[in-house]
Amino acid sequence: MVSKQQLVKFEAYLACSGDKDVVDISNLLFKIAAQPNDKRKVKLYGVPVRIDKVEELTLDDNTLKKYPDMKLIYFHMSKLRDDGIAITKQNIDDLVNLDLEADEYIAEDISCIFDVKNSVLFVQRNFHSLSPVGIKTYLIEMKKKMDNETITLDFKPVPDKKIISKLKKVDNVRKLELSFGYDSYKQFNLPLKKYLGVMGEIFDKFVNGVNVSLVLSAGYKKDNPFKKENTTDAIQRISNDNSIFSKAIISGKTGSMPVEKYDLINGKLQTKYSFSSVKQVSGTTKKIHLDQNSVRDVMKELYLDRATESSKPFMELVVENLH
Q1: CB-based burial, 256-276: b 16+ in 10 Å, e otherwise
Q2: What DSSP assignment string belongs to 47-75?
Q3: Lowest-confidence range among 53-67, 159-173, 185-199, 300-314?
Q4: What is the DSSP letter of 240?
Q5: How many other β-carbons are positioned within 10 Å of the β-carbon of residue 171?
Q6: For residues 95 and 52, is the Cβ–Cβ distance under 8 A?
Q7: Under a CB-based contact definition with an 8 Å cutoff, are residues 300 and 313 in contact?
Q8: Coil, strand, or helix at residue 11?
Q9: Which of 17, 40, 191, 298 could hold 152 in an S-S bridge, CB 3.0 to 4.6 Å?
């Protein structure tokens, strides 16, 4: 049975150049868009990446009345693999849609909206696509290529403060589950090897190009190896990370309460939307590539208009959680 819906997550990140200074990346985005197609490519971890499209979104009078000075910049990015059908490799400005078999999918392009007023990156998250770390690295490399200038840029996740406060009350952690891709592994492989010891080199040989999962468990030991001060620090570090993890789940409890699972990735402020993911072609079910214009329009509506679980537009939740 082929799923007819694809659930897509969207997250918010603060663009900054240090602990406090926010950054406006809109001019950089438009400068990149003005470059010839082949000049917009940057190779990240062996895979060419490019920005395909940059545009300022049109806002109606009611939106501008509600949010004065609001300015949203949409941009679309792709990995340009030549191994398989993950994304089209054609050197044209417009991406083409591909008809895929029922067990195939595309998940290596992403849509993003940059909120100029609040310096917030609102980004579509796909497991195999660029992470905010990849977006940051791409922009830094393009700035260096175009202007021979190095900039300091970081995308810090906007936290969901309610989730983080619950996690900090956990005083008995039993298990930590982490998953990350190769791009993310490159960001912290040296610290990881330190803890793996002699297994580090063996681990390194197998991690190239794959997704990695680690499970650290306290087992049945009464003397819990997960110390309170260490787990509290880990919770804060992961919640403030640069999106290197695709999964980070803590299983633990408070006092005599039962063990519960806490998703640290959901500790980041996020929202979700279900897109149609199949079509019928001559009686055969085909999975389809999400249309970037449809994703763009949904993201704009989610950010400014559509009520979320808290009955507020996502942009208002972002502002609340940044202060």
Answers
A1: eeeeeebebbebbbbbebeee
A2: EEEEEEEEEEPP--HHHHHHSTT--EEEE
A3: 185-199
A4: T
A5: 14
A6: yes
A7: no
A8: strand
A9: 17
Residue type, 7: L
3-state secondary structure of 41: strand
Taking residue 112's Cβ as centre, other Cβ atoms within 10 Å add up to 24
Given its phi and psi angles, is residue 219 left (phi above 0), alpha (psi -120 to 50 degrees) or beta?
left
Nearest to 180 by CA among 133, 225, 136: 133
Query: Could you report the per-residue pLDDT of 33-49, keeping only the tens digit for each?
Result: 999 999 999 998 888 99
Phi, psi of 46 (to 5 degrees): 85, 0
pLDDT tens sequence across 172-213: 888 888 877 655 555 555 445 544 555 556 556 655 556 677
Cα distance between residue 315 and residue 123, in whole Å: 12
What 8-state DSSP symbol labels residue 265?
G
> What three-state secondary structure class fits 108?
coil
248 neighbors 173 (Cβ within 8 angstroms) = no
Measured in degrees and rounded to the nearest 5, phi and psi for residue 207 equal: -80, -20
Domain extents in the chain: 5-157+272-322, 161-267
- 34 by Cβ neighbours in 10 Å (0-12 / 13-18 / 19+) ranks as exposed
